[in-house]
Description:
Elements lengths: L13 E3 L5 E6 L6 E5 L10 H7 L4 E5 L16 H14 L5 E6 L1 H12 L4 E7 L8 H12 L8 H7 L3 H9 L2 E3 L2 E3 L4 H13 L3 H6 L4 E6 L6 H7 L5 E6 L6 H4 L1 H12 L1
Parallel strand pairs: 3-4, 3-5, 5-6, 6-9, 9-10
Antiparallel strand pairs: 1-2, 2-4, 7-8
Amino acid sequence: MNRMSGPGRGSAGPVTREDGTRLHVLDSGGTGPALLLLHGLAGYAGEWAQVAERLAGACRVVAFDQRAHGSSTRRPADLSRTAHVGDVVAVADALGLERFTLVGQSMGAHTALLAAAAHPARVGRLVLIEGGVGGEGPEATAGVIDWFRAWPIPFVTVDDAVAHLGGGPAARVWAEGLEETDAGWVPRFDVDVLEAALRPVHERPRWEEWRQITAPTLLITGENGYVPAGELDEMRRRPDVRHVQVPGAGHDVHLDAPERVAELVRGFAA
């Protein structure tokens, strides 16, 4: 397995699933509490680098490119929620993580929620960053996918990508996840595959699974994030749930405020 590295660095060290899907894994090593980090739609494992650096020495940090993302299999046959949950367990098994804190952002948070419900013996603590129970409907899928389809691919330079993505720290990390080709800088994902992966998240809300979770749970949202207030209120009804809103942060809280996210995760996982 690879050591945790900066965005885009490191060669593949895959875990291979039964369906042939290869998952590219980053592992900081160490003997501290184990953290398994799941990025969101269109992301990649290296986007956690700034958080991981701040956890160095205190925790063992593992992250992997989700199926259809980054250096993992780009067009897997199975894009179901069940397959994504299975990937979490497969990576944990391959690295010998019997019990761990599971951290997910956005779509990765939805996967983390389902994994915690399905595998309570493995997930000791759960951290959801800008993530909820899903079920927003097909209009939500269409809105997200239309945004990706509007990218002017290829970007001539990384700076062009940063500008198109809105500038700032989050846009820079997103742009660093692109791949350089002779034509320019392009994503390491296919939009039609993203659509197929995202659609099941929006199909129905997962309140039943949410209520099955036994792991103490930390909700981290951005002041300018996307999780509806009513959904957060309902999620906070579980007695073992803590919620922290990060001032000034958007949906990519881990990119806008990596120091604060690392501080919260470190304290929660200890």
